[in-house]
Each structure stands twice: as C-alpha cells, then as structure tokens.
Amino acid sequence: MSFEDVNYSNVRLHVPKGTKNKYSRLAPWSLFGQIIEDTEPVNDILVESIILSQESRSGEKGESFTIEATVLPENAYNKSLRWTSSDESIALVDNTGLVTLLTEGNCIITATALDGSKIHSECLVNCGADVEGINAEMSSDNNWYTIDGLRVTKPTHPGLYIQKDKKIIVK
C-alpha cells in the first residue's frame, strides 16, 4: 500500500503559517481533505544551555532533594529534559529533577535537552558521611581527581573531587 492508496479526504493537515497554498498544490499533500494553516510561525530555536541550581550536592542515605533546571534561551521550542543518574544504585532521579540518595557513593545526575540539541548539564552527587567542605586555595597538593578519575592540578570550579582517598566538595 502506498501513500496514494489511502483515502485522506477526512484527514486534516496542519502546515506552518504562510505555506498553505504551496501544500494545496503539491501531491501528495493536496490529497488531504483539509489543509489548516497554523496561526503561529514554527519555532525551531534549540536549547543552548541548561543551568542547574547546584553543581554538586552531598547528603545522607534516604535524603531527597530537587535540582532545579533553567533552560535557555527562554524561547526555545522544546524545553523538555531527560534526567538520568550515572549509578542508580547510589541515587535515583525522576523526571522533575527529584533526587533520592540510596547508598554511599558518588554519581552524576544529568539533565539532557530533548530537542535534539544534545545539550546537557551535570550535578555531582555524593551520598555518605565522609565528605569535607574546603576552599580550593587551602590545598597545594597536586593529586586531585575528578569524580570520573581525571587527574587535575587544582580544582578550577566547584564540584566533587578526590584527594588522598578523601571525597572533597570544593565550594
């Protein structure tokens, strides 16, 4: 069965503003019973950035908190996000950014735009009592590691790091 073999006389086709005449003259679109021109122009503006309310967070087993997300630009056509946890045995996240800590460890909560832009943002999460907050300028030790195991000379932004077998949140 091909497109032309179906009876479309009772089917409405919605088209972008200003294109109704073009569609009504072209097959197979002219086969539709009714062509309706949308009143608003099509918005194809993609997400350019996602700003999370927290870059890192520490808590105890059983604790829940919400990570808020701001999607930019404001007029992006699809601001929907997919929330994921890099390790669901440590923390779960729902489709609103609500995180629930399950067991001791570290993971990354990621918010990803669903508009096809592949834009994402991350929050480093630690569940456990052995976290110590310090200022990056307080340490001169060069053995810092990101949560992913990448060695850095010194933390350049807030986040969760490992130094001398301690988990450290840099503020």
Note down, in words, how this protein is organized:
With 171 residues, the protein is mainly beta. 4% of the residues lie in helices and 42% in strands. The protein has 1 helix and 16 strands. The strands form 5 sheets. It has a 5-stranded mixed beta sheet, with no helix packed on it. Strand 15 and strand 16 form a beta hairpin. It is elongated, with a radius of gyration of 24 Å. It starts with 11 loop residues before the first strand and ends with a strand. The relative contact order is 0.15.
User: Could you tell me how far the N terminus lies from the C terminus, measured between alpha carbons in angstroms?
Assistant: 63 Å
Number of β-strand runs: 16
Structural class assignment: mainly beta
Tell me what portion of residues adopts beta-strand conformation: 35-45%
Contiguous uncertain segments of 5+ residues: 129-140
Give the overall average pLDDT. Answer: 80
Rg from alpha-carbon coordinates: 24 Å
Major pleated sheet: 5 strands, mixed
